[in-house]
From TrEMBL:
Residues 196-215 are annotated as: Disordered. PANTHER family: NAD(P)H-DEPENDENT FMN-CONTAINING OXIDOREDUCTASE YWQN-RELATED. Residues 6-106 form the NADPH-dependent FMN reductase-like domain. The lineage of its organism: Bacteria, Bacillati, Actinomycetota, Actinomycetes, Kitasatosporales. InterPro entries: Flavoprotein-like_sf, FMN_Rdtase-like_dom, ISF_SsuE-like. It comes from Streptomyces antibioticus. GO terms for molecular function: oxidoreductase activity. Keywords: Flavoprotein, FMN. It comes from the Bacteria. Gene3D superfamilies: 3.40.50.360. Transmembrane segments: none annotated. Pfam families: FMN_red. This is Flavodoxin.
Length: 215
């Protein structure tokens, strides 16, 4: 797959037609993508997934071909770069975003999809808006996305954060808008769980020396 294809998954629960802060920030970042990079934008509230049912350990999974699940599975498989654009809700991703990620657990078991092998090496990015001005409160969202990327052996480009409460507020966060300009140009290393990174450092350098020698 030579052409990069970005899939933006919009996770705000605002009413249709209300462009929220997360989407505004994501669009600022996307404006900087080079020509030739394909973009697809899907609102998870306009295409609501059914409640996820955990059938991992019983019946056969059938590949969804219709409705939101069919649309989102196909779009996910077609993307080289997945952008989770979710506002910060209770310090983590929004419910529609979480439900989308829960469906990955079903797709991982769906015959003929090869979800894990397909996702491996692709890149996960995050964009979020939050009312809090101290961005470390978004650490749980960061951890959710980073560890999800590690589980799928994906690359992780980090999370672009912007401050705002009501729609449009994020446009006053000039530091966030500046970060948006270069966000997608950043390196996206393979995500590793913290314990894997430690093991690799020890293996590569012996006895824990050489801090920073990670993937
Ligand atoms: C259900 C809900 C939970 C929220 N939880 C947080 C939170 O934990 N921390 C925070 O800083 N802001 C929180 N907010 C504020 C939103 O993150 C903020 O309004 C953001 O700009 C919304 O993004 P949007 O405009 O893209 O929808 C919450 C808002 C809602 C509706």
């Amino acid at each position: 797959m030579s052409t990069r294809r970005f899939l933006f998954l919009l996770g705000s629960s605002r009413d249709e037609g209300h462009e929220g802060n997360t989407e505004l920030l994501a669009r600022r970042a996307a404006e900087q993508l080079p020509e030739g990079v394909e973009q697809e934008w899907i609102s998870l509230t306009e295409h609501p997934l059914p409640e996820f049912v955990d059938q991992r350990h019983d019946s056969d999974h059938v590949r969804p071909t219709e409705g939101a699940a069919g649309l989102l599975l196909d779009a996910t498989l077609a993307a080289t770069d997945l952008v989770i654009a979710s506002p910060l809700y209770w310090y983590s991703v929004s419910a529609p975003t979480k439900r989308y990620l829960d469906h990955w657990s079903g797709w991982l078991r769906t015959p003929g999809v090869d979800f894990k092998a397909t996702m491996a090496g692709r890149t996960l990015w995050g964009v979020t808006a939050l009312a809090h001005e101290e961005f470390e409160v978004a650490d749980p969202l960061y951890g959710t996305l980073h560890h999800t990327a590690a589980y799928l052996e994906m690359r992780f480009g980090g999370v672009l954060l912007g401050n705002g409460s009501k729609p449009g507020d994020v446009l006053n966060d000039t530091a966030a808008l500046a970060r948006a300009k270069t966000f997608f140009a950043q390196e996206a290393p393979l995500a590793r769980f913290p314990y894997e990174t430690e093991t690799e450092t020890e293996t590569e350098t012996g006895a824990g020396a050489g801090a920073g020698a990670t993937a």
